[in-house]
Amino acid sequence: MTILEDLPDELLLKIAGSTRWNEDRPMSGVCNLALVSRRFRNIAQESLYRSPYIADSYKYRQCRVLQFLRTILDRRDLLAKVKEVFVVVRHREVPLPKGADFMAVKEECICLLGLKADIDFEGIRLNYEPALVGLMLHILPPLDELEIYIKTRKGVVDLDVAGLLFGTYRFKSLTAVRGLSRLRKLSLWSGPFHGDWLRIPSLRKVKLGSGCRPMSGTYQGINSTVSEVVLHVNTQVLLLPSSYTQLGELLEAFSCPETLSLSVDNAPMAYDVNGHPRSLEILGTSPGMFGDCQLLVDALGKVSHSLRQLQVVAEHVDWRATEWLDLIAPASSLTHFPQLKNLTVHQEFLLDRFTWTELPYLSISEILPGSLAYLDIINPTASIRGFLGQVPPIAPSHFPSLKNIQLSADDDRGCSFLWFWRDNHPVWKSLEEIGILVAVRHVSRLREKQYYDQLNSQDGTNYQLEDPGKELKDDFQDKAVIGVVDFLNAL
C-alpha cells in the first residue's frame, strides 16, 4: 500500500486499468485504498469506469451492480436523488425475501434501489461484488438507509472475502466511508461484521440477520444513540449458552435502545418417536436443560431500563418449534421493565404449554409490568380467557395505561380460536367495560419449501405443505431491476 502511495496518478491509473479480476486474487490495492483516500478513490473510480466490463458492457453478461454503476457514472446528476440502497447478492436459485421492493420513487428522492448479482456471470464473480459495492458507496452521496442481503450456495463462509464491506480489511474506521457518513438505518442479513458498522454517529436503527457473525471484541464504543434494534436469530444457535452471552454483550453495548425485536427462525429439525427434536442431541443438550435459557432473560434485562417496545416472535416454524418459548418465559422478570409500553409475544411465552395455565405461583400482575399500554399475544388458545380474566379486577391499580389487547390467531388454529372467541365468554365483556379494546388479527405463517424438504429427508415423514403464496420469480426480479436502470436513464 505504501508503495502505491508514492506513485504518480498517471501510473496508478495505468496499473489499476490493467489489473485483471479473477477468482484467485482479491481486488487490487487501489480499490482498497479508494475507501480511505480521496486521491485513490478518484483513480479507482476512473479505472472502474474504463474497465471492459463497463466500457464494453454490451459484450458481457454483466451483473446488476456494474450496470447500476455504469448508469450513475454516465448520469452524475442523478446521484443527489439516491437516498437508500438495497443490495442483494445471491445465487439465482434462491428467492429474495417476500415483499422486497426494488424501487419506490418519491418526489424528492429515489428511496430504494435493488441490485442483484449472480455468481455465474462471466468476468465478475461473487467474491468481488461486495468490493464493487464498497466503491459504489463512495460514488453515491451520503445514504440514509443501506440494506445488504447476501446468500450464496455455500453459505456465509464465502463472505469472508468481502473485506471492504464487512471490516476484514483493516482501515481506521468505517465512518471514513463517504456513503455511510449520514447513515440512519443499517440492515445486515449475513456475513461477519465489525463493530465499526455500529459506530456511525448518525445511526438510529440496526437490523442484524441470523447469518451475521459479530467479530470478537468489537462491541466497545458502539453508538449509544441507536434507539431501535432488530435481531434475527436461529433456534438451534439460540439453545447454546454461548449465544446468550454474545446476545447479552451486544444488547448491553447498545446502551439504551427503546425498541427491541427478537425474531426467531427455526432451523430444519428432525423429531424422534417421542416428539423430541433430534438436533438437541447433536448439540449435547436434552429438553430438560432448557432451564439454562434463563440467560436470555438476563440478556434482555441489560436493556430493561430503557426498553419501551419488546417483540419476541418465532417465524416460519411449525407448532413444535415454539415449545421452548414457555421454558424461557421471563415471568416476573418483565416486571423490571419500568418503561415497557408495547409487548408482542407468543402465548407460550406467558402460559405453560402442558397445562395451558399461568406459570406456577404467578399471577398476571407478577408476569407483566404495570406500564403496559399494548399487548399482542400470538397463537392464542381458549386458555387465554382465564389469563386475561385476571385483568379487570386489577386494571385500575396495576394496568392503568392498558388500552389495547390484540390476539393474533394463526391460520392453523383459526377454527378453534374463532370458536372460543365467539362463545360470548364474560371475559370479553368485562374487558370492554373497563375500556380495554380487544381485537383479533389472523396471521398466516408462510412455510419455506426448503425447510420441509430437509425435514422430510431427515425423518422420512411426508409433511403436507400449505400454499406459500406467490413467490417472486427470477424473471420478475430481473424485470424489476432492469426497470430501475431504465427509470434512471429516462430521467
TrEMBL record:
| Pfam families in the cross-refs | F-box-like
The F-box domain sits at 4-54
The record's listing under InterPro entries reads: F-box_dom
Q: Which domain of life is it from?
A: Eukaryota
Do you know which Gene3D superfamilies this protein is assigned to? 1.20.1280.50
- Name of the featured protein: F-box domain-containing protein
Species the sequence originates in: Trematosphaeria pertusa
